[in-house]
Amino acid sequence: MGLGLEPRRLVLFVECKEATVLDLDQTLNLELPFDLQVTFSSTAGDKASKFTGYWQTAELYTRAYEKRPWLCESETEGAVAPPVDLTSLLPDLGVVHDQPERVAGTGLGPPGTLRGRVAPSDLAQDYTSLEEALHSVNTMLTMLKAQNEDLQTRVQYLESCECVRRTCTWEGREKEEGSRWLIDSHTVCSCTSGKVHCCSYEGRIYRNDEVFSPHPCSKCVCQHMMGGPVLSEVADVTVCSLGCSVGCEYEGELYADGEVFVSRTNPCLNCSCSNHLVRCNPTHCPPTLCASPYKRAGECCPTCSEECKLPCTNPPSPLPGSCCPVCDGCGMNGVNFRNGERVPSGDRCEQCVCVNGNVQCEHLPCPATICSHPVRRAGDCSCVLDDVEYDDGSVWDADGSPCNTCSCKEGTVVCQTKACASTSCLHPNTEPGECCASCYHCLYKQRIYENGQTFSDPDDSCQRCTCQDGSVRCAVAQCPSVSCSNPYTPPGQCCPQCPDCVFENQVFVNGETFPSPVNPCEDCVCTGGHVNCRQQCQRPSCNYPVSGTCCQNNCNGCSYAGKEYANGMHFPHPTDKCRECHCINGNVQCLMKRCPSLQCSNRISTPGQCCPQCPAPPADCVYEGHSYRHMQQFYHPSDSCQSCSCTDGKVSCHRKPCPLALCTHPIFEQCCRTCDGMICGNGERFPDPQDHCQHCSCQNGGVSCAPVSCPVVSCRRPVRPAGECCPVCTGVCEYFGQEYESGSTFTPPTDRCLSCTCLNEIVSCQRKPCAQQCSHPARSTDCCPVCDLCLYEGVEYKHTQTFTSRSNPCQRCVCMSGTVACTAVACPAVSCPNPVTLPGQCCPQCRPCVQNGIEYKEGQRWNSPSDPCTQCTCMAAEVSCAGLHCAPLSCMHQVTDPSSCCSRCRGCVYDGVEHAEGSTWFASSGPCMSCMCVDGVTTCSEIQCLSPCQNQISVPGECCPLCADCIYDGRVYGPGENFHPSNDPCQICTCEVMPDGQQHLRCYRKQCPSLVDCPKHNILFSGPDSCCPVCAQPLSNCTETLIGNEVLATDDPCFTCQCKDLTWTCIHQTCYPLSCPPDEQYTPPDSCCPICNDLNVQCVYEGQTYDSNEYWEMDECTTCTCVSGDVHCQTERCPAVSCTSDESPSLIPGMCCPHCIPRPATCIVFGDPHYRTFDGKMVNFQGACTYVLAQDCEGGDFRCVSFVMHSHYLQECMRNTMI
Predict the structure, then answer these.
(1) Most exposed of 91, 335, 371, 1068 (fewest Cβ within 10 Å)?
(2) Beta-carbon neighbour count of residue 387 at 10 Å?
(3) Which of 359, 326, 328, 354 lies closest to 341 in space, CA to CA?
(4) Which residues make Cβ contacts (< 8 Å) with residue 90, sequence separation at least 6?
(5) What is the C-alpha to C-alpha distance for residues 937 and 924, in angstroms, rounded to an integer?
(6) CA-to-CA distance for 575 and 590, rounded, in angstroms?
(7) What kind and span of H or E run contains 154?
(8) pLDDT tens digits, one per residue of 1161-1172
(9) What pTM does this model have?
């Protein structure tokens, strides 16, 4: 279709039909604006609604069409009247191709070459063509509306599916919507609405809140701000503020306006700051009178050198502008002092003063002492005990025992023993570091339990005991019910339990659920010693899953109508070929195929096809030697009173229809009878030949005419259609100066949030529906509220944000999707008698306490700043302080840390590492040497292996072989269970799970702590089930006086105990195998290892002969012993060495293991000149003197000096060491 507008004419082209020309009585004046836009949309007046038609191309021209703008076969039309240039009315907008939003102008139609047109000769045919064109347009609009409704329904469905996940792409990687990430340590980027937002300015990325200067007079800051009407969308904004500070910036320094200065990089430039500009001029140097002038560091002009001859030994630094110093003051270690000023000395017993360039020192007199143990400290009377010096008034534990304390009083040491009060509990315990027993823990049957701890009685597993404030109370244990029919009671336990299951050589605990080792699709459960397995499939989350490993619950594909399809695959419907299906994550969606648009109105449906089609183009007609197009109307070639038409190759003719002549004497004119010029009879009525809206009558030779009577219309704005006599109602509505067709929907210009409908001149409006409604929406310029935020009492709150009402502090409100819901605040109970309610608060609260200017809340506890061992409490606005109560310790060795108020158990020190009381570890000397700390005594011995089972396996890293399973004496043990084989309390076997998942028994002989020098008559066994003996009296302490001493443990001669690091360390002696038969071996009294009867057996090793039991050293790390003719050697194992950055490990002659020593260092001088010291620091200094680089400060063996002259240097190293 093409439409051409001219000042007095309208031309319409529809397909290849004859052009319709409408001549206008008045001139058509198109006053079009410069920014005219004609928009194709689905909703009138709403440009944002997408056009869903099938236009292929739209073109806009500033000149009307002269001919049909496309080519038709059998073209017979001539040219249209000359066009009118509309350039003056509308600027040249060019051609705009069709998109979802199209722009058009004065000419609209499909592309083609402009061709001519033959004007019709009959006005009635013009109206007929217009009516057909309007009917076609109305039919197309009806079809487009139906398609638009269908497409809108599909779009709403697809949008509700959440099938498309919006993502962002950053440096080739996909980021999810809403995610945030760091591109460096300070810059955060986010993915919002499918776009990546980072803070950048002029091509560079800046971190949040970073202040930068892109230009000399501008300062900018990167701020992360909220933008747009939707507050969940985050945008990065760079805010810049322009402003210059008064002054100049030069070489990284700021100078005030008017300031004069010397360049830092070039001392020969004198610069000044004026009006933010720096101007520099070269310095003019005066001539020098000497032969070899030189430049001082930091100066521009050269000067003459001088020879310095001074009468003093400690002159200060030379004055500026001179090379030699003067003896007015003193210089010491780079610091200048005035005459008479005191100079610090390395000896505090000396007092030094500066006198004319010389430092004079004299010894200070010492006052007389009145104490018995004076030390060399002026006026200080301290005490010396065991080569340790104590300050006057200090208190310490004597011999490391908390039961004996000593104090220093005016140089005299006074020691006394603490007295212990009786306890109120039944099982008190002496805490580590304490002297007296307390009720903080329970000591029950040689075991220590925490306060409140529940445990089984060591002698009776059916007794459940509880430690409460130092007293142990026991009761019979309540056994839980069992669910199996065959329970049993394991040895050493009280309650019966269900048996475990053995399935496929694996042991499973009763009630345990596990995957079947035979069928991976089954889950098994152990119940009463029996294993039950069954297959359980999880219900899939999709409707058409495919088969998985075990069940049909895999949603990564679709199983539909007996066939499987890959995820995302499109496939035809199995029964309806007019539908196409899509597999999406196990769900199948089938939609009708989309049919192409047809340009014909008489569509036909072909069997077996999904979409309708246009019929074959009709044939033209040939009639009496003339050719005519399909549907073309023409006059009979030989009879002009006949009208013919061509229809699909056939010609049909009929006479021209004539109107009824109502007169009695019509005349024949142009094939029809007419009353024009007729003769009427008296009383005859007939229509006015000139005006068909007038009816005339003949009376007595005269004719009288009157208008036709019209029915009354009920509308306010009736119109009379062309060719009609009576007005009719069109239903057109007039609303705010604009007209709207009946049945149309439009948006009024006064309120874009209204949707109005025109129906029979009546306009009804209502607000556009909103998808989401809320009671407290945020401010928005859209028609619908923004429910992402809440606007409540003039303040905006985020979704799910909780806040307190500004008008009522007792209301706690929450913002949920634009709606605010408030509830009353529940006030907690207060513990003070007279609470107060502060202004702006809802709940009463207790008054705080103030101490030393610090405010504390009711019930708050804190340590006093003046005494950290005093704890204060705020109660009823008053502060009460009391000393901190320390829990009593049961251990013998107790220490108090400098930052602590209470003592703690010191534990044991082994190889310089402190171990907690009761802990165990492996010694560094061997992987099978186990150590334990009990009562401050370290006991180390080789692990003694047991082999109660026949099937044994060796595991790498284990000292002892393990049993192949957890079965002993016909019983299966579960993980963690243990027992005593042969009913020996010293033998322990435990079922453990190895890293490979297998269960094995680990058996060993229990290690007992050494009793050091406990007398034999005081060594007791607590009962028949006890493995380790105890000492009836406290063991001796390892004090400083005993460090280095060795004793043999009285309970076991194989232990040798040594006092070191204030800890008894007992090492079990290793017995080597003997070469003599067992019947010739015996163990001497009070000895650990057996020996052969023949004491004269000697050993020969590397040509040397050694007596039996003789000991010698091979090197610094290896020692050997002759044992009954056999040589046994042992090599020391060195611990790991951890050195600082300025140290390195090194071997010292005579020692086995490396130690940390200072690293070698180098001092370098180079360049103009540059110095790098021994510790790696760089110093740049210019001068023309002699500098000492390094020298021996004690023996004076060497001295290295540097001579610097004229920026050249020579280095000389002088040595006079006697080697």
Answers:
(1) 335
(2) 6
(3) 354
(4) 30, 32, 36, 62, 105, 106
(5) 18
(6) 11
(7) helix 123-161
(8) 778 887 767 788
(9) 0.27
